[in-house]
Write a structure and sequence with these properties.
With 312 residues, the chain is mainly beta. The protein has helices spanning 30-43, 295-305; strands at 19-21, 51-54, 68-76, 79-84, 89-92, 97-101, 107-109, 118-120, 123-125, 158-166, 174-179, 188-193, 199-204, 212-216, 229-236, 240-245, 248-254, 281-283, 286-289. The strands form four sheets. Strands 8, 9, 10, 15, 16, 17, 18 and 19 form an eight-stranded antiparallel beta sheet that branches. Strands 5-4-3-2-6 form a five-stranded antiparallel beta sheet, with no helix packed on it.
C-alpha cells in the first residue's frame, strides 16, 4: 500500500506595503501633477481599477467633494468612467479628481508623515527573561518645545510611540515596551497588555505612594488573539494621552504633566524593576516621533510600514 503524500503547509507571505504617492496640493503646477499621474498609470497597472477621489468644491451631477470611486472605463484624462461608492457610475475628468490608489495597489495617497526620530528593534520575544526583545538605541522620549525648521509651532509639546505586536498569551500582564531605571528604582514608562489583553499606558514616578499613573483602552479590548495589531501612543506635556489601535482611537486619559526622570534608553519587553511580566509574542520595530501625530498620520504610518516579517 502506497503511503499518502504528506501535506506541506504553505504559509503565505504578507504583500509588501504600498509606497506613498503625492497629492495634488504637493504640486505647484497642475500640469506637473497630471504628468505625475500619467507616469503612475503607465508603470502601475494602467487606469482601469485605479481608485480616485472627487476633490472639486463644486458638485458634478450628484458627485460631491470627498466621494471615492474606481475607474471602470478610460478614454483620456478629460473623460473616464468611475463607479462611485454609494452612487451610480458617471463620467468625470482628472481635473476634478485626485488619484488615491494605483490599480496594482503599489502606490497609495496618504497624509504626509514626518520622519521618525527613531525606528528599530523588536523581534520574537519571550516567554523567559533571557528572551526579551530590546529596542536597542531607542532614546528616552522627551516633550520637545517648538524648534526652528518646523513648519508650524505645535500648541503643545508631545511625542508619539508606535509599535506592532502579535501574541496569543493571556492570563498575565505583558509589558511589550518599557523604559525603566537602573538601581532598583520603580521609575518607568510602560506600554503593556493586561491579563485580558487590554491596552494600558502608564508612568511610574518612583514614589511608593500614588506613583503609578495610567490610562486604559475603553471599551476594553482583547489584543491577545494571535493577530497583528498596531498600537500608537500620543503623550502631551499637559499629561493628556491618546491611544490608537489598528487606526482607531482606543482610549484617552490624563496622567499628570510631569514625566518620570532618570529613565534608561533602549526599552525592553518586560518589567524592569522585577524582571517579570515578559511579553511572549512578536514585536515590530518601535517608531518614535518627537511630535503629536494626527489620526490620519497614524493610519499612514501603519499602512506604509507593512506587516513585520520574521525568520522562524
Amino acid at each position: 500500500q502506497i503511503a499518502p503524500t504528506p501535506q506541506v503547509e504553505v504559509i503565505e507571505e504578507p504583500p509588501p506595503p504600498p509606497e506613498r504617492m503625492q497629492g495634488r496640493c504637493e504640486f505647484e503646477e497642475e500640469e506637473n501633477y497630471i504628468r505625475y499621474v500619467r507616469g503612475l498609470f503607465k508603470n502601475n497597472g494602467g487606469q482601469v481599477g485605479a481608485r480616485v477621489q472627487f476633490v472639486d468644491d463644486v458638485p458634478f451631477y450628484g458627485i460631491t467633494k470627498g466621494m471615492y470611486g474606481v475607474i471602470r472605463e478610460w478614454q483620456k484624462m478629460e473623460a473616464f468612467q468611475v463607479k462611485w461608492e454609494g452612487f451610480e457610475t458617471n463620467w468625470v475628468d482628472m481635473l476634478r479628481c485626485q488619484l488615491q490608489e494605483t490599480a496594482d495597489k503599489a502606490f497609495i495617497w496618504t497624509e504626509e508623515v514626518p520622519e521618525p526620530n527613531f525606528v528599530g528593534g523588536g523581534g520574537i520575544a519571550g516567554p523567559e527573561v533571557k528572551d526579551v526583545a530590546t529596542f536597542e538605541g531607542a532614546p528616552v522620549p522627551v516633550l520637545r518645545v517648538w524648534q526652528m525648521g518646523m513648519k508650524a509651532a505645535p500648541e503643545h509639546a508631545a511625542f508619539t510611540l508606535m509599535v506592532k505586536l502579535r501574541t496569543k498569551v493571556s492570563g498575565r500582564m505583558q509589558h511589550f515596551m518599557e523604559y525603566g531605571s537602573e538601581g532598583g528604582s520603580r521609575k518607568a514608562l510602560v506600554l503593556r497588555l493586561t491579563e485580558t489583553g487590554n491596552l494600558e499606558y502608564g508612568e511610574h514616578t518612583g514614589s511608593l505612594s500614588s506613583g503609578w499613573r495610567c490610562a486604559q483602552a475603553m471599551p476594553r479590548m482583547k489584543l491577545c488573539d494571535g493577530n497583528w495589531h498596531t498600537v500608537a501612543l500620543v503623550r502631551q506635556d499637559t499629561g493628556f494621552v491618546w491611544m490608537y489601535v489598528d487606526d482607531e482611537l482606543a482610549g484617552q486619559g490624563l496622567i499628570g504633566a510631569d514625566m518620570p526622570a532618570g529613565l534608561s534608553p533602549s526599552p525592553r519587553s518586560y518589567r524592569w524593576v522585577k524582571q517579570d511580566s515578559v511579553f511572549h509574542g512578536d514585536l515590530g520595530p518601535l517608531r518614535i516621533y518627537a511630535q503629536e501625530l494626527t489620526i490620519n498620520q497614524v493610519r499612514a504610518v501603519n499602512l506604509l510600514s507593512g506587516t513585520p516579517r520574521f525568520d522562524t
